[in-house]
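Hey everyone, long-time lurker, first post.

I ran two proteins through the pipeline my lab uses and got sequence/structure pairs for each. Pasting them in order. The first:
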Amino acid sequence: MSGILEGKRVLVTGVLMESSIAFHTAKLAQEQGAEVILTAFPRPTLTERIAKKLPKPAKVLELDVTNAEHLAGLEEKVRAELGGLDGVVHSIGFAPQDALGGNFLNTPWESVGTAMHVSAFSLKSLSMACLPMMSEGGAIVGLTFDAQLAWPQYDWMGPAKAALEATSRYLARDLGKQGIRCNLISAGPIKSMAAKSIPGFDQLADTWNHRSPLSWDVTDPEPAGRGVVALLSDWFPKTSGEIIHVDGGLHAIGA
């Protein structure tokens, strides 16, 4: 029986650790029949080590999404490996330490600007770098953390995720005519590399122990990875500009 991504070529960013949603996305994508290529920054060698744990070999390309030269050179490198693309996974987010952990009112614009550039504008940058390779349409899927609410300790990553969510809707609007869908998975908290950079992460994640209708495991990224793979597949052919929550249902619960 063939997988739901049989014959598809998918670029996955953000594979930093085996505990990352991006790693489980790449693993599931391969298991579902996709050819996968990875990008990494700032340490491609780290991603190459983690990539060895995937079911099949995957090439790792260095890609700083804030570097115009890296973005301009992406097409040639990916075409050499895969010939083109059917799917792109944006799993990229970063904020300087002074933009997190309760410093919201005092964070300087320089740090806010970095968070916005890396975490939100990069969805547009990456999409445009990959667009020439998606001549037959395809799917772009990003990862967010529900930006409808203000979270403890999350500070400027919240507005950055809100900008990411808006960017996804505008990409859906502008890329639809080329048969490209753009959607996001809004995942519950996962103990990943990104989580380790958030002071007070455990306090934030503890909310799920009390309010999530479905039990939530912060050490299990696979449910979110399954959501990403589903959106990459042809099973959502007319869904775009959407945010699918994979958070145990917490987003629907008021108190």
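...and the second, right after it:
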Amino acid sequence: MLLLLLSPLCSFYFFVLARRAGLKSLPWVVLGALTGPLALPLFHNHKRMALRKALGHGLVWFKP
């Protein structure tokens, strides 16, 4: 029951996150609807890998 309630919320949340990160949103909407919040670590890892691919591996993009 809880999964059915979280499914539309998670799919919308992943849609917003994917659009903000510049990723394709449809696969993340489907994954969010199927798995709910369990796909959040996978999304963050995919976003980090896409950023490293876009910037290159030798570039430092975070300076404290």
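Reply from user beta_strand_b:
Welcome! Quick read of the second one: Residues 2-55 form one domain. The mean pLDDT is 86.
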